[in-house]
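2 proteins. here.
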Amino acid sequence: MVTYCPIVDAVFKALADPTRRSLLDELFRHDGQTLSELEERFAMTRFGVMKHLRQLEEAGLVVTKRRGRQKLHYLNPVPIRLVHDRWVSKYAEPWATGLSELKNRMENTMEKVFEIYIRTTPDRLWEAITDPEIRSKYNFGAAVHSEWTPGSRMEMFAPGAGALGDGEILEVDPPRRLVHTMTALWSDEVKSEGASRITWEIEPIADSCRLTITHDQLREGANEQIYGGWPMILSGLKTWLETGELLTTPGSLMYQ
């Protein structure tokens, strides 16, 4: 007998309904929509749309964030990535698949939100984010170095590959919140995109932590390589913290 974790059951249950799949399609088309915007696209009551969104949130497929009085809804592909990693990733060719393609757009800039639950402590999760050796285990083989103080520099590199990214630390509140800029350097194409901003938020939930990544200040239509790797990174982080094992995903050994 194979035992499946509750999140896998919740994902399949959420995806079984065509209306919920259509809601995810709408967020894939245009991320960060309000309830009113989504309601306009469906022939059902506001309560009905809310009910479907609630089930998608419970499955982790939709994440919400407040912007003033508005509550915005974002597609979170991480749970789908975890399902993929369980049954598909061992058959995928790393260089054929590449980084996940996510092209959700906003009016002027793009904002991507990713969420995952990890059975660990906030301190241990913070260490995994800021320790260079641990970070390289799930970050495509690349380590991140910084003094982790406001105003200090952050550098990402890997042996044999050189500098892969740099940025500035903006906010540090261990083990709860980390904000920094990031300029990708691994190719001329991504370097031309300039700096974007990444926010890590850790919230303890019972014996686990909810980690939310907000990647914003992205140019509309920005190169998907800059943000498309988050589902694989977070899947690898969860696997390593919970099992001590390395997760092989497309591109995970790119810089090793």
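next one coming up
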Amino acid sequence: MSSITTDVTETTTTHDLDIRVAAKNFDSSQAADGNLKVLEDIALQLPAGEFVSIVGASGCGKSTLLRLVLGLDTDYQGSITLDGEPIRGPGLERGIVFQDHRLFPWLTVEQNIGVGLRNANFSARHKRELIAEHVALVGLQGFEKSFPHQISGGMAQRVAIARGLVNRPRVLLLDEPFGALDALTRARLQVELQRIWQKERITMLLVTHDVEEAVFLGDRVVVMQPHPGRIRRIVPVNLPHPRNRSDPAFIRIRDDVLADFLDPTERGPADVRPAPPAPAAAPVFPFSGERLRFAW
């Protein structure tokens, strides 16, 4: 892949979020030269309102990339811009939801959501209105005065999503937001997040290990590979919302992405290509149980 320019003055204004990371290294005594290369040649553009999923095995730099977009780490080669402006630190125009809800146990549901407005230049009345609006958005009416220990894990994660959205960010970053939940709660919240995204239409960037989740939520799925972390390919998901996990077209795209992790030697170098055409009769899952044991 050709080298990506590291000149931060050369920005692209045709996309709301433009990520160009030539290299990101960490100091490491185990690396041959003392530098562990974590990311390399990352080029990704997100138009306003798009939902992009990043999927990859552990160690491919997914969460590190989110930290760079959030502005928590600026020590890298390249540039990340939002509306043409370089990101040089945290900002109110970018929100994040973590795998752990990280709610304050001594605050109520509405108070935890209100934390997202602490640095916002709004009147007290407007803040109350925004909190009430986002309590309703995530379906937690009647639980405003509850404390985190009084609600379920799935409800707590909905509070975290509301806290990430309440400040009206232009970009919401999601770092394995449902990874700690049981399968049923996870599926329900995926549907809930899809509904919220369709209503709010803000740019969302999701990091996940779950291929089905990536396809279910994303307009595009970015497949990453490790050592160092880089984009293997980008798969468009041209399916209408709401999505049906049993749809043969959905299954076909899911299985195509999953094949990168089941049989990595069958793929060529990193590329960007469309999803494969629909076969006459798509099998529900064309991989044997023996091969599935090596998925992750």
